[in-house]
Amino acid sequence: MQKRALVVGLGIAGMSAAIGLRRAGWTPVIVERAAERRTGGYYIFMFPEGVQAAADLGIADHLHTRNPEWRPGGNSWSVDRRGRRKPALGLLDAPSGLAAVLRGDIEAALWQSITGDVVDGGTEDAVEVRFATTPVEITEGTGGVQVLLEDAGTGKQYREDFDLVVGADGMRSSVRRMVFGPDEDYMANWKAMICAFQLKEQVPSYEASDSIIVSRPKRAMWVFGLADHAPCAWLTYRTEDIPDRFAGSSIEQVRAAFSGMDDDPVVRHVLASLDEAPDHVFDSIHQVKMPRWRTGRVVLVGDAAWCMNTYSAMGSSSSLRGGAALGAALQEHPDDLAAALDAYETGLRPYITRQQRSARVKQQRFVPSSRPVQVLCSVVLELIRKVVHRRLTAEYTASSALSGAAR
Ligand SMILES: Cc1cc2nc3c(=O)[nH]c(=O)nc-3n(C[C@H](O)[C@H](O)[C@H](O)COP(=O)(O)OP(=O)(O)OC[C@H]3O[C@@H](n4cnc5c(N)ncnc54)[C@H](O)[C@@H]3O)c2cc1C
How far apart are CA 88 and CA 74, in angstroms? Predict the structure, then answer.
């Protein structure tokens, strides 16, 4: 009989894990707290590791990417205190070749596989997904795990047995809380806030696919341009005083954090767009650090296990990689669950630790902690920009000449 796994959470980590489990011959069942699948979402940089993991999971061909075409002079601008714009080094200019997507693009590609649509030229069984369902109690016995599940629609609770529980329920994971302990034991507070949303339209006088950076000590506003979609705004600020994200108006809190900067037209446009945006993400920033991601027959993946946070720009790539790694480990150790879960953790942990460490450095680029750091970052980035843009301009000229000759 096929072994059954309960996967908690229909995000990138949960769907990746379910695909990995299915490939390893398991039967995954996904439960999701929300009543329906979310779509859209904020801007995401996918690193090559994430693109490779998408290929390993067989979803790469279904992943819609939205990188704007590079043009001489670049597509990214930074705006100084006097409102003057100058070319900036965009994250997409990196030679490693990042992919620009919306979170919903990754989830849509994973969903196609989950629903059993054609993947890698073949078909797979659809994965059972139960919406509006959460685990309430997780009890491990000798031969399996018993989970008390609750259907939010009917209020009905029922018990079900599984061979494995995968907690993929995000940074504030309830599986982690129930099985490993309280949030305070694992969530490090980075004393910063994030707000992200889609702009209805680009900031006036910029190209639709331009990216714009307005960075000041302790607060920064980034507009990320896309090839075939309205840009996305990403606002962040450092604060000692982390508000209750559900208390009061998040829009008012963001406005207060950026007060004094709104004489800049970019800032004004973005804040006005926030008022009109149908939805936005507003949250405090944490990193999740755990000594172990598994105990017995319960294992964590994605933000639940190692949330690196938004500054790392690695959360979705590592979630895809985590799901693929879990599946590969179970495939390699079909008759020894403990060995499989150990292999999953041992194989992945060095990469996760490296990325978590580098997030602190990346944070300085996204939102400098002080004026000297801001000046230092801009000098270093400008030097790198000159080299990178020289190379990109040469490549652009060569490819234009080639296509001219072909015509
Ligand atoms: C503004 C912003 C920008 C980002 N930018 C990038 C980027 O550029 N590059 C990058 O790689 N990453 C980025 N990230 C991080 C990335 O989005 C996350 O790391 C990734 O989506 C985590 O996926 P996950 O599946 O682990 O968790 P989540 O996306 O949080 O999904 C968890 C799922 O579990 C469900 N759930 C929660 N509790 C329960 C429960 N009790 N029962 C059932 N279901 C439950 C939730 O509803 C949700 O569907 C960014 C994040 C933010 C907020």
Answer: 8
Which regions of the chain carry the CATH code 3.30.9.30? 76-99+189-286+366-371
Q: What tokens appear for 233 in the block? A: 């705004």
- Tell me yes or no: is domain 76-99+189-286+366-371 CATH 3.30.230.80: no
The finding on whether 272 has its CB within 6 A of some atom of ligand 1 is no
> What is the reported pLDDT for 257?
93
Mean pLDDT (10-residue bins), the chain, 407 residues: 94 98 96 93 93 95 93 91 92 85 96 80 83 97 94 95 98 98 96 96 95 96 95 95 78 94 93 94 96 97 97 96 98 96 98 96 95 94 93 87 75
Task: Choose one of 38, 169, 177 to mutate for the ligand 1 pocket test, by most ligand atoms within 8 angstroms of C-beta.
Answer: 169
Residue 281 CB less than 6 A away from ligand 1:
yes
What is the Å distance from ligand 1's center to 184 Cα?
Answer: 19
Could you give the C-alpha distances from 363 to 54, 75, 338, in angstroms and in order? 26, 22, 36
Residues of the chain with CATH 3.50.50.60: 4-64+103-186+287-363
pLDDT value for 246? 66
Q: Output the residue whose Cα is nearest ligand 1's atom 15.
A: 315
Contacts with 151 (C-beta within 8 Å, 6 or more apart), sequence order: 130, 132, 133, 157, 158
pLDDT of residue 345: 98
Distance CA 211, CA 77 (A): 6
Closest CA to 318 of 282, 283, 355: 355
Query: Length of the chain, please?
Result: 407
Can you tell me which residue has the tokens 């319960």?
298
CATH number of 4-64+103-186+287-363, picked from 3.50.50.60, 3.10.580.10, 3.40.50.1170, 3.20.20.140? 3.50.50.60
What is the pLDDT at residue 404? 75
| pTM recorded for the entire structure | 0.95
Cα dihedral 213, 218, 219, 222 in deg (nearest 10): 30
Q: Residue 89: in which H helix or E strand, if any? A: none
- Burial group, residue 204, by CB count within 10 angstroms (0-12, 13-18, 19+): exposed
